[in-house]
Design a protein that fits this description.
single chain; 547 residues; alpha/beta; Glutamyl-tRNA Synthetase, domain 3; Ribosomal Protein L25, Chain P; seven-stranded mixed beta sheet; 24% helix; binds adenosine-5'-triphosphate; binds magnesium ion
Length: 547
């Protein structure tokens, strides 16, 4: 799928009119958590647009707030990009520009466009005014250039405590755009930076640092989500007043939201820290590592993102669309193997004790290239509980029942003769006979079976755990709309079942994708052991989306 959106049109025009000679973009995550599917929109948009014009994309860690950042997240983000199939031209760190950024701050002070303020953060926000009333000038606003230079240098040297002084841009405290009311440029934080150590105790704010970083790197189109649109005026102000040689431009696009899905790093972190999930890569998580473990493929995510398009407004997409993209991708790629999630034991009374035979089974009936394998059949098998009813209820029942004959997929016709129940009346075992004349592939055409069901031979079967998932978040309703998100967690988001799979899974690699007959797409999880395989259901076979 080719990328096509309003930003592409802007880029085409810029190239045509000679405003730029090439397209250079960047993806600028803050390394304070793992990336989520919303970030995939930003990544794919930046990389695909640059690629469409033979340009390139940098990965730039926006690591100017050391309080929450760390190497674990830097490594995680690099791995996520690689998994999605994107290689940045350069990997840069905002913190590498601290010296150059500092020099630009000095320039603004010298031009009378920045000052050191003694006000506390609370006082500053109180004096900022409101949307309808202008702000009030700080008593420090008219400090001399010399005094500001001296104080700012002292800030850098560590003479002041956190919050004691702030460097602010001197713009207009009555500006209709609140972001222009003398925004903070530097704050003091005595804290260890994951790359700079203790070299700095003053850190530039995003609004000041980001445009300069874009300019240093020669970024032509600085793409970001919509919440930055009323910061663009400040972006342009810093570029102009800092006399930046290269002039980048900011463009905003709508954020991606998905139904029943948390799309904020803050909330995602809260889920992990409160142990509501097993980690960032819990298969229920909207993180890229979570989606990967759930069984999503980079291709499915890319197709999903491109199919949702890109607009200037935020959008909410139904989560079933993501599942649909995965089904599309896996349909011909995944092996269709046999797994029994809710086992019911079958005894074939007329099959010789101790004998096992192996039958041919295609790995994907719609894709011959995936080849075939052997599956076992013997006197003891498992079928799905839901494939058996003691009494055939009606003509539509195309599965097994007493006195009814079905085909065991790729094996024989099997007829049920009797059932064994426990003291509570639950069926624990069924007794059947098979017809040796009906072996699959022999062209037997004597009778028509009442359906075709899958099975797993019991003595060679491997034990398996199946995880099935519901959305982490409950549906949004009028009643729960205003509740804290932790109270909207779905208490039933994880279901675990113990069953069996066929022997051929034995040598499969963690991360292999499967389609389990009638049940869904699954992936082999890293929690598997030699004696028990663990599978995560990636999605169901058909959309369960209800209108
Ligand atoms: P969050 O709001 O989840 O904390 P963020 O925007 O603070 O995310 P950043 O690390 O700053 O996270 O994001 C890197 C880039 O990804 C930014 O350009 C941001 O605009 C973009 N981005 C983040 N979330 C989304 C989303 N849901 N849809 C589109 N772009 C997004
Ligand atoms: Mg952000």
């Amino acid at each position: 799928m080719e990328i096509n959106n309003f930003i592409k049109t802007i880029m085409e025009d810029d190239l045509k009119e000679g405003r730029v000679n090439e397209i250079i973009t960047r993806f600028p995550p803050e390394p304070n958590a793992y990336l989520h599917i919303g970030h995939a929109r930003a990544i794919i948009t930046n990389f695909e647009l640059a690629k469409a014009f033979n340009g390139y994309t940098n990965l730039r860690f926006d690591d100017t707030n050391p309080a929450k950042e760390g190497q674990e997240f830097v490594d995680g983000i690099i791995a996520d990009l690689k998994w999605l199939g994107y290689t940045p031209k350069n990997v840069f760190y905002g913190s590498d520009y601290f010296e150059k950024t500092y020099e630009k701050a000095i320039l603004l002070i010298k031009k009378g466009l920045a000052y050191v303020d003694d006000l506390s953060q609370e006082e500053m926000s109180r004096m900022r005014g409101t949307l309808t009333t202008p702000g009030t000038n700080s008593p420090c606003r008219d400090r001399s250039v010399e005094e500001n230079l001296k104080l700012f240098e002292e800030m850098r040297q560590g003479k002041y405590k956190d919050g004691e002084k702030t460097l602010r841009a001197k713009i207009d405290m009555a500006h209709p755009n609140m972001n222009m009311r003398d925004p903070a440029m530097y704050r003091i934080m005595h804290i260890n930076h994951h790359r700079q150590g203790n070299k700095w105790c003053i850190f530039p704010m995003y609004d000041f640092a980001h445009p300069l970083q874009d300019s240093f790197e020669g970024i032509t189109h600085s793409l970001c989500s919509l919440e930055y649109d009323n910061h663009r005026i400040l972006y342009d102000w810093f570029i102009e007043k800092c006399e930046m040689e290269h002039v980048p431009h900011q463009y905003e696009f709508g954020r991606l939201n998905i139904t029943n899905t948390i799309m904020s790093k803050r909330y995602i972190k809260q889920l992990v820290d409160s142990k509501k999930v097993s980690g960032y890569d819990d298969p229920r998580m909207p993180t890229l590592v979570g989606l990967k473990r759930r069984g999503f493929t980079p291709e499915a995510i890319k197709n999903f993102i491109l199919s949702t398009g890109l607009s200037r407004v935020n959008s909410t997409v139904d989560s079933s669309q993501l599942d649909e993209a995965l089904r599309e991708d896996l349909k011909l790629k995944a092996m269709r193997k046999h797994a029994i999630v809710h086992p019911l034991k079958v005894v074939i009374d007329n099959y010789p004790e101790g004998q096992i035979e192996y039958l041919d089974c295609p790995n994907n009936s719609e894709n011959e290239e995936l080849g075939s394998r052997k599956i076992a059949f013997s006197k003891y098998c498992y079928i799905e509980q839901e494939d058996f009813l003691e009494e055939k209820p009606n003509k539509k029942w195309k599965r097994l029942a007493k006195d009814v004959e079905v085909r065991f997929m790729h094996a024989y016709f099997v007829k049920c003769n009797s059932v064994v129940k426990d003291e509570n009346g639950n069926i624990v075992e069924i007794h059947c006979t098979y017809d040796p004349e009906t072996k699959s592939g022999t062209g037997f055409e004597g009778r028509k079976p009442n359906g075709n069901i899958h099975f797993v031979e019991a003595t060679t079967a491997l034990k398996a755990t199946f995880r099935q998932f519901e959305p982490l978040m409950l549906d949004e309703t009028a009643e729960n709309k205003d509740l804290d998100f932790m109270e909207k967690l779905n208490p039933n988001s994880l279901h675990v079942y113990e069953g069996y799979v066929e022997e051929s899974f034995k040598d499969d690699q963690i991360g292999t994708h499967y389609q389990f007959v009638r049940n869904g797409y699954y992936i082999l999880d890293k929690d598997s052991t030699d004696s028990n395989l663990v599978f995560n259901r990636s999605c169901e076979l058909k959309s369960s989306f209800k209108l």
